[in-house]
Amino acid sequence: MIAHVFAPRFVLLYLYVLSAAFVHFRGRIRHRFTRQLTDHSTILAPLNALLYAFSAVPNQPLLDVRRFPELERLRENWQTIRNEGLRLFDEGHIRAAEKYNDLGFNSFFRTGWKRFYLKWYDNPLPSARALCPRTVDLVQSVPTIHGAMFALLPPGGRLVTHRDPYAGSLRYHLGLVTPNSETCRIFIDGEPYVWKDGEDVLFDETYIHYAENKSDATRLILFCDVERPMTNRFMTRFNRFMANTLVRASKTQNVEGEPVGLLNRIFGYAYQIRLAGKRLKAKSQIAYYAVKYVLMGGLFYWIFLS
Predict the structure, then answer these.
(1) 63 — phi, psi (to 5°)?
(2) Does 1 have pLDDT greater than 60?
(3) Phi then psi dihedrals of residue 116, to 5 deg
């Protein structure tokens, strides 16, 4: 009996449960248990727990941007970046995805959020090189920036409470055009930050956060994923490998013809299943949750107990 309890698959199960519990209880703000159970942060909990353990920066919501002096180049040139961002906005290039091919940000489009990618864990997008070359050059001058975009939140827009899925990066925001008011801010693990023109913030996006723009002005920022520094070379290489495989597979396009990553191609098909689930939920929430948890239980049994 004891040998059965400590069989390799059960050890893996225990480690998985422990890492998921750590992710859930990390920080002051938490999802309700039923949401956390199906959240992507639970799925990636073992990977993220490993990255937290070997993080060379403190595991805390808000971080000191001065620990990353290479980002000062962006702050010094914020007006150049703003000018190119405003031109993109005026010409209608900063927008929501036109297809179901932006897995990471699909749910935010319904609440007003829009974006224009500069790069996403790969080389800069051709449309970005053509339309905002000076900003692309500035971003490319910082090797630790793996993803970057212009992100727009209109008056009345909001980002729902969420965690980002992958702990191998940190999130950098540089204010470009903002209301400069507490009516437009982001909360990271309950701590508020007010965007202001020419000012920047660095935070851990795997803490629960949300954003709101209750002003009558549009907010435009430069949004970057910065590599999380690790305590040793092995974990640095491991983090970069995961970024270059798992996260790169979520890249998408600004315009038709630009390449789309594997995860986003799969998402385009899988979203049809989600739409069917929404139709079922609208008819009967009992039936929807019954099907959802039966499928989850079956998958759990197949992975750990079969």
Answers:
(1) -120, 155
(2) no
(3) -140, 115
The maximal CA–CA distance of the chain, rounded, in angstroms, is 68
Query: Hey, where are the domains in the chain?
Result: 62-260
The mean pLDDT value for 54-75 works out to: 97
For 53-81, give one letter per residue: b (16+ CB within 10 A) or e: ebbebeeebebebeebeebeebbebbeeb
pLDDT digit string, tens, across residues 82-115: 999 999 999 999 999 888 888 888 878 888 999 9
Lowest mean pLDDT segment, chosen from 2-11, 90-99, 266-275, 294-303: 2-11
Tokens 């490998």 belong to which residue? 241
81 close to 176: Cβ distance less than 8 angstroms? yes
45-53 helix and 8-25 helix, angle to the nearest 10 degrees:
70
CATH no. of 62-260:
2.60.120.330
**Residue 91, burial from CB neighbour count under 10 angstroms (0-12, 13-18, 19+):** exposed
Task: Give the integer Cα–Cα distance in Å for 26 and 186.
Answer: 19
In tens, the pLDDT along 208-257 reads 999 999 999 999 999 999 999 999 999 999 999 999 999 999 999 999 99
Three-class secondary structure assignment of the chain? CHHHHCCHHHHHHHHHHHHHHHHHHCCCCCCCHHHHHHCHHHHCHHHHHHHHHCECCCCCCEECHHHCHHHHHHHHCHHHHHHHHHHHHHCCCCECCCCCCCCCCHHHHHHCCEEEEEEECCCCCHHHHHHCHHHHHHHHCCCCEEEEEEEEECCCCEEEEECCCCCCEEEEEEEEECCCCCCEEEEECCEEEECCCCCEEEECCCCCEEEEECCCCCEEEEEEEEECCECCHHHHHHHHHHHHHHHHHHCCCCCCCCCCCHHHHHHHHHHHHHHHHHHHHHHCHHHHHHHHHHHHHHHHHHHHCC
